[in-house]
Design goal:
The complex is a heterodimer of chains A (428) and B (311). By secondary structure, chain A is α/β, with parallel strands linked by helices. Chain A contains 14 helices and 19 strands. The two termini of chain A are 20 Å apart. Chain B is α/β, with parallel strands linked by helices and 311 residues long. The chains are: A alpha/beta (428), B alpha/beta (311).
Amino acid sequence: MSLLLIKNGQLIDPGNGIDEKSDLWIRDGIVIAIGAYDAAADEVIDASGKIVCPGLIDMHVHLREPGQEWKEDIESGSRAAVAGGVTSMCCMPNTGPHIDHAGVALQIVARARQVGLCNVHPIGAVTKNLDGKELTEMRELSRAGCVAFSDDGMPIWHAGVMRKALEYSSSFGYMVIQHAEEKELTAGGAVNEGWISTQLGVTGMPVEGEDSMIARDIMLTRRTDARYHVAHISSMGGVELVRQARAEGLKVTTEAAPHHFALTEEEVLGYNSDAKMSPPLRTEEDRLAVIEGLRDGTIEVIATDHAPHHEDDKRCGLSCAAFGIVGLETMLPVSLDLVRGGVLTMSDMIAKMTCNPARLLNLDAGTLSVGAEADVTIFDADATWTVDRETLVSKGKNTPWHGKGMTGLVTHTVKAGRLVFAEGEVCG
Amino acid sequence: MRPLKHLFGIADLDREQIEYLVNLGDSFIEINRRSLKKAPTLRGKTVINLFFENSTRTRTSFELAGKRLSADVINISASTSATKKGETLLDTGQTLAAMQPHVLVIRHSLAGTCEFLADYLPNTALVNAGDGAHEHPTQILTDLLTLKQAWGNPEGKVITMVGDIAHSRVARSHMLAAKKMGYTMRIVAPKTLLPDQVERYGCEVYHDFDEALPGSDAVYMLRVQTERLTDNCAFPSVREYNEAYGLNAKRLKSAGSDAIVMHPGPMNRGVEISTDVADSVHSHILSQVELGVAVRMAVLAALCGGTGEES
C-alpha cells in the first residue's frame, strides 16, 4: 500500500470541469482524492507553480514494431511518450506484419504491458495488407485490443471499399480513421503543391488531394451513418468540410498534428527533409484554418502522427526522403503556443489531448476522476528548453524543431501511480 | 563581388556575379577557337564530372572546359536505382570528395542534389549541372553569353520559351535570371505543362503559341520528352503537340525577321522544332553549344580561384 501526494499544483481535469489549485492523492495506482485527505503520504511530488493534468493521450503514433525496430520500437516509443507526458497512445497498423489480424495486435499489447510505461492501444487495419481491397476481421481485432480502424499511411481509396468499411465498422460501433489523400492527385509528390514546390522543382501534393477525399468520405458517412475520423487534418478546405458535416449532425471528427498548426511549407525551403510529412506542411492560410478549427471545436483532438525514421531514410534528399517526423516529445510545448496565443484556454488544450480522444476511442483514461487509474502529467508551462535531436528519447531524430526553443516542459509523468518520468529522465 | 563557393543555381547569384561569369566566359571564347586550345589557368586542379543522368553535351562541355584550362578531369557516369538513389548519391559524393577534387560537377534527377550534398562535402566546390526540375545554371549563363553575342545586352528583350515548363530546370533558371538581368520571359505551354503559380516568377504566361510570338526577340524551344508528355495525360499526342507548340519557319515569321531561335538540346526535329528553323540563319543553337564550353571554363575558373587574366 503506497500513498502518493502531488501537492500544490494547478489541477486541470477538463473531463470533470476542474481547474483549481489543489492536491491530488493516489493510492496503489488509483486516484483516491482531490483536495484535502487525512493521511500521511509515502511519497510527495511538489507541483508548486506547475500544472497537473490527466496523462496525455496521443491517438496517432507509429511505433514501428513489429518490423522496423531500427526506427522505433514499443519500448523506445513508450519512453519517448512518457518523456512527452503521454501515458496512452494509439499505434497505427502500418507495421510489418500489419495490424490486420489479431495476433499482431495481441503481440503489441503484450509487449507494451511488459514495457509498462505507457498504455498502447493498437489501431487495426481496415483492409488486409492495407491494400484497400478486403476488409479485416474487425470484430476479432477489436477483441484483441484495437480501439479503431485505419489504413493510415495509405488512404482507403476505393470509394466502394470505403463505403463497405464504414457500413461494416459502424454496425459494431467502430470508428474509421482515414488518411485522406487522393493518390491519383498526389503521386510522386514530396511537399505541398504551390509556389514553394515550383521553386524547388519538386513534385507537389495539391491540397485537393486531401479535400476531395474528405468530401467523398463525408458523403459516404452521411449515407452509412458511420463514425468517421479524419487523421492529421492540414487544409483549410478539409477543416471547412468537417465543420459543415458536424453542423449537419454527422459523426465526423478530426485531429490536428502540432506541425500543421505550428509550421508552414516554408520549412522545406533548402530541401529540409525533416520537414517532409504526409499530409505536407501547407500554406499560412491552411495553418490559420487549422488553428481556427481547434478554436471553434471542429478539431477536437491534438495528435502527433509521431513517425520516427532512421537517419538513412531521411538523409537522401527531399524527394527521396521518407514521410514523417517525430512528435511525442514536442507535442505539449508546441501545443501550448495555442494557449499563449489566446486560441485555447489551458483546459481546452488539455482536453484535446486527454478526455476528447478518450471519448472518441472509448478509452478508460483521460481524467483524474476518483477511482480512475492514476495517469498524471505534470508540466511547467513557462520553462524553456531547446530541442536537440541527439537528446530526444525516441530513436527517431527526424524533427523540424532541432535547435529551436520550446516553452513548456514536462517535469513528471505518472503512470498508474508510478513515477515513470521525472526531471528529464525516464524511470525504469 | 561576393566570392563563389559553389554554383547551385541562378537563385543564389546576384547580377554582378552573373555578369562576371558571362564576361569571363566571353574572354575564354578565344581559347576555344585557337589551334592550340590550352591555357594553364587550372593547372594542378582536379575536376570530377559526376553524371547520374545521361548527357552527352553538358558532360562533354564540362570536360573540354576543364581540359582546356589544364585541369585534370575525370568523368563518371553513375546509374541511379529507382528506390535507393539518394543513399547511393551520398555515398558516391562522399567517396569522390575523399579523393580531394577541387570541383565536383553533378547532374542528378533529384532536385536539390547540390544543396543536399553540400552539407556533407564541406571541402569540395559543387557545380550543379542540372538537378531534376530545379535549376541548370550553366545553361542559362551560356544562353546569356549567346545573347550578349547576338544583342550586346538582353535588357528589355523578350524571350518566348515554349514547352514542358513544369519539368524544366532550364525554364526555372531562366525565369530567375530574367528578373535579375532585366529581360522578359514569355512562357508558352498548356496548363498541364506549367508548374503551380508560375506567374510569381514575374513571367508572362501564354497557352497559345501564336499569340505569344509577336514581339518576341528570341524563341526558346524546350526539348519535349515524349514519354513524359503522354504518360501523365499531359498531352494527347506528339502530333497534336507539334501542331500547337512546334516551331516551324511559317510560325517564326510572326516573331519578326530579327528573332533568334534557341534550344538547350538535344533537339527533337519534327516535334518541338522543325529542320527549316533549326538549320536556318535564325538559329543560334550551335552557338549555344560552342559558348557553353567557354562559360563552363569561366565557372570552373571562378570556383578554383582562377581569373581571366591568368589565361
